[in-house]
Amino acid sequence: MRLLDTSNGYGGGNSERLLGEVLRERGGVPEGVLVSTKVDPDRSGDFSGARVRRSLEESCERLGLDYLPLLFLHDPERTGFEECMAPGGAVPALVALKEEGIVGHLGVAGGPVGLMERYVKTGMFEVLLTHNRLTLLDRSASSLADLCARVGVALINAAPFGGGLLARGPASEGNYAYRRAPDGLVSRAKEIEASCGRYGVPMAVAALQFSMRDPRVSSTVVGVTRPERVDQAIEMAAYEVPPALWEELAVLAAPQELWLW
Predict the structure, then answer these.
(1) 8 Å CB contact between 72 and 36
(2) What is the end-to-end Cα distance of the chain in Å, rounded?
(3) If you compute the radius of gyration of the chain from its CA atoms, what whole number of angstroms results?
(4) For a tag on the chain, would you pick the N or C end, based on fewer CB atoms within 10 A?
(5) What CATH number does the domain containing 152 carry?
(6) Dihedral pair phi/psi, residue 35, rounded to 5°
């Protein structure tokens, strides 16, 4: 694990505060580890260029860092594309921060595939983070992954468990991507779980490795709620999965009409 990903808005800033405490205890960022965070609007919804700078200042204070190697524009679907791109908007502010040497690389992290494609095509971003859209169930972001590969943008795939459905299973988790999963999606998740069961492979293992084995994916981001989850994720990443299972899973994605897009 070499990427520590957080955001200004996670837990009202608590995610960055906790990470900052650990970094201070360790005397800084360990060698070979990349820390990334994301700029977020304030409580009023302001996502202007000025807010981007304040968001980064807040993050740097919490993290105890004066330089961010990777900074994301976070969920730009919360405002308009034109507004973000306009003079005084979020994107010009990010570009300026990079030119000033405060930020190393720029990324965009969000959901809707069509919108993310627009940001990639601006040529201003070197990294894209997609979530819940490149999983065993949902392949919405496959075309986006192809685009990133063509233009040389690194792809980070987050939430390979779909928010829990592909980790805990449909018997105990009814949500996918932070909302109630439609019956068709749950039904397909049951088929995936059954297929994994026949090979003695936990569905969570297959969900994680599905992302890790995709050559278009540079890094896979997994959310953790407790320290022991880190060790569990490492164990799942090393679990041996029979090739025949991947062949079965290749055709078990949900129908496209159920994808998030």
Answers:
(1) yes
(2) 29
(3) 19
(4) N
(5) 3.20.20.100
(6) -105, 125
Contact present, 38 and 4 (Cβ < 8 Å): no
Residues marked active site are found at 10
Residue ranges making up the domain that contains 94: 3-258
Contact between 143 and 113 under an 8 Å Cβ cutoff? The reply is yes
Mapped onto helix, strand or coil, the DSSP state of residue 50 is helix
Q: Rounded to whole angstroms, how far apart are CA atoms 134 and 211?
A: 7
Please classify residue 9 by burial: count the beta carbons closer than 10 Å to its beta carbon, then call 0-12 exposed, 13-18 middle and 19+ buried: buried
Nearest to 84 by CA among 112, 131, 122, 34: 122
**Distance from chain centroid for Cα 108:** 10
Our count of domains for the chain comes to: 1
Location of structure tokens 């022991």: 228
Main-chain phi, psi angles of 39, to 5 degrees: -85, 140
Instruction: Give me the tens of pLDDT residue by residue for the chain, a chain 261 residues long.
Output: 999 999 999 999 999 999 999 999 999 999 999 999 999 999 999 999 999 999 999 999 999 999 999 999 999 999 999 999 999 999 999 999 999 999 999 999 999 999 999 999 999 999 999 999 999 999 999 999 999 999 999 999 999 999 899 999 999 888 999 999 999 999 999 999 999 999 999 999 999 999 999 999 999 999 988 889 999 999 999 999 999 999 999 999 999 999 999
Whole-number Cα distances in Å, 260 to 16, 40, 58, 71, 236:
29, 22, 32, 25, 26
pTM: 0.95
CB 98 within 8 A of CB 127: no
CB 255 within 8 A of CB 106: no
Give dist(CA 97, CA 100) in Å, integer: 5
Question: What CA–CA distance (Å, rounded) separates 44 from 10?
Answer: 16
